Amino acid sequence: MPLRRAELEQLDRDDRARLLGRLTIAMIVMAVLGAVASLLEPRNHADVTLFFYGVVIAWLAVVALMARHGRLALAAWLLTSMFWVLIAAVTVLFGGMQGQNAACFGVCVLLLGSLVGGRAAIGLALVSTAWCGLIAVLERGGHLPTPLAPYSPVNAWAATTITLVLTAVLLASALAAHGRL
C-alpha cells in the first residue's frame, strides 16, 4: 500500500529530526575529542582551547534545544552556519588553502542539503566556492595574516576525523531513510 503525501512528509520530518539529533551528538563528541587533542598539542594554550570548545559545545546545545522544540530548519541553519563560520575562520587564521581544512566545507553542504534541501546545498556550495576563491587570491597576494600556529599533524588529523565521521553519519542516515521508503 503506497504512502500518502502527508505520511511521506511526516516520515521525512521524522528522518530529518533523527538525523539532526545524530549529527548534534556526533559533533558534541567530536568537539570533546577535538578539545582533548588540542590540549595534548604543546603549542596550544589551554585557556584558548577550553574557551573555543566551550563556545562550540554551547552552540551545539542551542541547536539541540531548537530541534527538540520542533524548529528543525532553524536548527539546521544554525548548525550549518556555526560549522561554516568555524571552517572559514580556520582558513583565514591557519594558512589559507594550504591546509586541508577547506575540504570540510563539503560536510556543510551535505549537512544542509540533507536537512533543508538541495537548493540550500547548491547555494552553500556556491558561497563556499566563492569564499575559497577569495582566500586563494588573498593567500597568493600575501594578504592573509600570519598563521596563528604552524601546521600541526594533530590538528590535521582532527579536521580529517571530523569530516569522515560527519560524512559517515550523513550517509548512514540517508541509507536508512532510503530503506524505509
Give your account of this protein's structure.
This protein is an all-alpha fold and 181 residues long. It contains six helices and no strands. α1 packs parallel to α3 and α3 runs parallel beside α5. The N and C termini lie close together (12 Å).
What oligomerization state is this entry in? single chain
Tally of individual helices: 6
Largest sheet at a glance? none
Average pLDDT, all residues: 86
Top keywords for this entry?
mainly alpha, 6 helices, globular, 181 residues
Set down the secondary structure blueprint:
Layout: H1 5-40, H2 46-68, H3 72-93, H4 105-115, H5 118-140, H6 153-180
Quick recap:
This protein has 181 residues and is mainly alpha-helical.
